[in-house]
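WARN no homologs supplied; continuing
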Amino acid sequence: MNLSLKQLQEELKYDRTASCVQCGYCLPVCPTYTAFKNEAHSPRGRINLIKMAGEGRLTDLSALEEPFDLCLGCRACETACPTGVEYGEILEAARAALGKRRTLSVPARTLKKAMLRKMFPSRRMMNIAGHSTWIYQKSGLQKAGRITRVIDKLPYHLGAFEKVLPKPVSPLERFKAPKRVKAEGKRKYKVAFFTGCVMDAMFHRVNQLSIQLLARAGCEVTVVSNQSCCGALHAHSGEQKEARRLARQNIQAFEGTEADFIVNNAGGCGAMLYEYDRLLADEEAWAERARAFSGKVKDISQVLMACGLPDMRPRKGEAVTYQPSCHMTNVQKVTKEPVELLQSIPGIEWKEMNQADMCCGSAGIYNLVHYDASMEILDHKMKEAKRTNASVIITTNPGCLLQMKLGVEKEGLASSVRVLHLVEYLAEAAEIAEPVQ
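OK structure emitted
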């Protein structure tokens, strides 16, 4: 690929690196630098590589592959940066540029295309995934796989994650899920609920509890039928064209709802929806529509705080700690609402986790494609989680939920520590749902 230096600079977002003064404030908050102690795996190290490439001092872009592949994309560096470096844009541009130049095998290229373009954006395919998981667990296949240890031979360490999968709902329950739920009592807000792809396929129960909580709090909830995947996995994988297509589809789907808010319950999805205005900023026909959409995006914790929680049953003596979603913290800037919701539950013993904002190592599919690195980062997180002596760990993102469950399993704490989505715990306290064991 023959490009002029100016074209390469534009492709790599070289101009975004100018505000980085290499001060090092990003180092202590970067999970990969903390784990590996390698400057190339720090935000300023990666930015320096982009500067070198943009200035012609580095001509072999393959030198960028490992540093940018191993970046979790948690964007904690943006929160710590005193000069406002737009690291997220630099990261996505670098991955897109590397993706164009990387030669994948035919099977790998076919699998990537099938997953990102056919699987995640398709509600039908994600429903099939959910149905298949239910059949797998209910039919005896799961038990047989564990007894014969066949699951331990699955690629990408999928056997480890199989052990922490949530119990899926039945196809009938999924089919009967309501599209509109009236507010209980006086309506405070009219909201449109974003179900997500993985969230609705694997965590359908959490979605339904979210809708019930919103209704109990005074929201009229609409589930838009023609919504699609948020596009986060695509953007983080360098598939910018597909991410933009999905953004346009979702904007168009939600525009007709006349909702006060577009509510989500997954930190990673919420961050992507929140940044549709940035993603489509250079598309004249969509920029204003994207700004209007992003302006309505709210995490469920924000809406529940605005409405006020229903009465909560006391949880006497239950020690609770919180593992925040990186994208919810560093992109959406939603930090206090989940904590205040938890602390409002009578009787709980609140346990602040040290370095709570440090990434757990999930990061979309990072823990699948970079399992060893992910587990090293998770080990750091679990040291802090164990120090709290909490019996309940709360998360706000599906990837974090599975990752922390895996950490609890690895530490031999599964019989004494529960890992729950914030919505699940609030629903238990509001007596909307039975406790999850």
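Residues 371-387 form the longest helix (17 residues).
OK
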